[in-house]
Structure formats: C-alpha cells, structure tokens
Amino acid sequence: MIDLQPVKGTRDFFPDEMRLRNWLFEVWRRVSEQAGFEEYDTCVLEHEELYIRKAGDEISKQLYSFEDKGGRRLSLRPEMTPSLARLVLKHTKSLSFPIKWFSMPQCFRYERMTKGRRREHFQWNADIIGQPDMVAEAEILMLLISACESMGLTANDIRVFINDRRILNAILSQLNVALDLHSAVLVIMDKRDKISPEDLGKMLEEVGMSSSQVQQLNEYLSKSDLQELKDSLQDTEGIDELQHLLQLMDTAGYRDYLQFDISIVRGLSYYTGAVFEVNSPDKQHRAICGGGRYDSLLSTYGGETIPAVGFGFGDVVVLDVLKELERFPELPRTLDYTIIPFDTEQVGVALKIGAELRLKGATVDCNFGMKKMKKSLQQANESGAKFAILLFPEELSQDKVVIRDMQLREQKPINITDLITSAEQTV
Question: What is the DSSP letter of 303?
C-alpha cells in the first residue's frame, strides 16, 4: 500500500486552506509593492556549498541535500538570503544600488518539529541591498509592521524585539573573549530561550569561555535598559546606532512596536548589526519574523562588501497566531455564475454560455451533475455563486435562460444575448 500521508513535516493545501494562503501572499505582495519593493525569485535547488560555507550555522546540518546524476552536490533551499547574495554578486555591475527586493519562496529544513516549526514552509523575504544607513532598517521594520497591521495585528498583539550584534560583540570584547570565538558564542547565545542557564553555561565554556566570563556575560544580559548598558560599555557604536534607529521609528510613528531586548541574537553567523524578531509581547510563540543587517554576507562568497538588511517572515507561525486571536479573514469561495443544465443535450449550450461570460471577465462554473432542482440549487449556494443560470427546455427554445439571484432567491427569464451583455455590469 502506498502511504497517502504527506511527507513528515510537509503540508497539503485543500481549497479553503489555499484561499487563506493566497490571502496571506496577497498581503505580503501588496505591502511590498506599496513600499517600492520589486519581486524576484530563484530556483529551489542550489549548490550545497552555498550553505555549507557558513561555518557554525545550524542550518548547514538541516539541509535536504543529495547528489544528482551529474555528481553535483545540491540542496533544497533552506532560506532565501544566500540565493539573493548569489544573484546580486552575479549581476553587481548591472544593478543600481540600493535595491529593494522581495520574494515568497518555499523553503525546506530537516529539523526537529515543534509547534510553529515544520520541515517546509513559505517565507516572505524583503531586503534592501546597498544602503549602509540605518534608514534601511527603518524601512524594513515599517514594511513588516504594515504587513502585520494589514492582517489585523496591532501593537497590543505583537512586538518587534530588537538588538544589535555590535552590542553583543562589544560585551564579549570587554570580557576579553577572543575575537575568533565571538561567532561560536553568539550561535550558542541564540539558544538562550530554549535551554537551561546551566546548559547554556556549559556550552559556552566548551567553546572556550571561562566560568568567570560566563558569569559576567550573564550580568550584562540581565540589563534591560539601553542607557544603563551604554554606561557600562567602552565601545558604544552598536548602542548609538540602535538609539538612532529607535528615534527614526519614533518620528515615523512606529515606536510603540519596538522593544530593546539584549537576548535577541539570531542564530545565523552572517548578521553584523541590528537584529530583530517579531513575537507576542510575552513571547508565547515562536518568532513570527526575524532578520537584521548582514553587511558581510556577500563578501564571504568572494564578492565585495555590500551593505544589506532584510528579514524572513514565515507563514506557519503567523497563521497560528491569527487563528489563536480569531483574526482569520472570512474567505468564502466566490463565483459570479454557476450554470446548471438538466439534460446532457444542454451541455454544449452551457459550455458556450460559460465561455462567453468568462470573456466578459466573469468567474463561471458549470454544474454537470444533472441533479434535481433542489439539490442543484443547494450546490450553487454552497459554491458561493451570486447567480445561478438555469437551462430549461422551454426557455432555451426561445434563446433564453432563467437567472436566479442566490441571495434574494428571485429568478426571471432573460435572453442569452442580454445576459452576456449585462455581465460586464454585473462583474
């Protein structure tokens, strides 16, 4: 027997679920285009080395990789940013920076499944490449907040928890942690909310930190006030930049959404500046969205250093949040017309009327079930059709049909030519 279940960690989308997915995609696409972002896409298959090169990242252990018939090591994309980097590096000379691009790829990661985490998901990515100033972060944050607002989420429902990698690096430098250990330490620190303090301390010591350094690090991580933290550090570049960003967001009217959180690290090693995650105010979910500045990523692939900032916004968690908050939109199936013949000899006429109505821009379904009147009208009502077109022999002999308003439950005969002509006004 063939296993009829979807592959573990993947999903099927029935029509009602597909309507919800399409609605989400429409929100992402609309707010992106309104903010001046252009859409792009890449192949779902990439060379495995595109991800393996980022040493220390867990993502390299979560790849769906294989060798093709030509002996090439390939991988299903686990995220979009490296593909974007490849695309930009390939066409650097022909691009006019800064560029603002977005995409909605399907991504695959072989990882342990928990609530809000699957092995495949769709992800809205938006990036600004070639803009070194913090205004890029401000635009990116405003974009994702506007998307949340379009979904019915407010500052009471979500918070953008924000930090800066330079702050964390400044803390580690002040604790005399060797520079070559910073990347590994930050990857471990990203697990802070997922493991016990004891396990976190052990992992930090295993990569080379002393117990004294771990203790002092925890003291710094307990600070929640940005100014207090600034007063305790010698290198304040990260804090200065973050304060500037918060001022920009305040002026733009979005400050209520942002909250400084020193525990935000982001697990990918390529982040170099501001990092952020979107979650409920009490962090009761997985992160809805995450991102930050990654100025050094393109140079790791052999290109020049090009400033970049962006985010990934998955579909799984945000749909869970919307469901929990009862914010799902009503998305019934809608049709302009459903055509109902009652005899096989009427099939050709039904197809012709349907084709002509579609040429006028109408959405039209034909019900060829040849059911009785009551059952056919019930199916028309369930389909969401505004009107039912009934093909009766007497009316057809006069080049007429009967049109029924499914909401008013009123019907009348109409000439077929008049029906087609009036469709432009109805649609």
Answer: S
Distance from C-alpha of 335 to C-alpha of 347, rounded to nearest angstrom: 19
- What Cα–Cα distance (Å) separates residue 371 from each residue in 68, 344, 375, 379, 397? 52, 11, 6, 10, 21
Looking at 263, 291, 324, the residue that finishes a domain is 324
Single-letter residue type at 197: P
C-beta of residue 37 within 8 angstroms of C-beta of residue 69:
no
**Residue 330 is assigned to a structural domain of this protein:** no
Are 157 and 83 part of one and the same domain?
Answer: yes
Is 314 domain-assigned?
yes
- Given its phi and psi angles, is residue 292 left (phi above 0), alpha (psi -120 to 50 degrees) or beta? left
Domain boundary among 273, 302, 324: 324
Assigned domain for 114 exists: yes
- Residue 260 is given by DSSP the state E
The 10 Å Cβ neighbour count of residue 205 is 13
Running DSSP on this structure, what letter comes out for residue 307?
-
Query: What CATH number is given to the structural domain containing 407?
Result: 3.40.50.800
Range of the domain at 357: 335-426
Q: Report whether 395 contacts 413 (CB < 8 A).
A: yes
pLDDT tens profile 281-335 = 999 888 999 999 999 888 888 778 899 999 999 999 999 999 999 999 999 888 9
β 106-108/120-129 pair status: antiparallel
Does 132 lie in the same domain as 210?
Answer: yes
What does the block give as tokens for 153? 């989420």
pLDDT at position 205 is 93
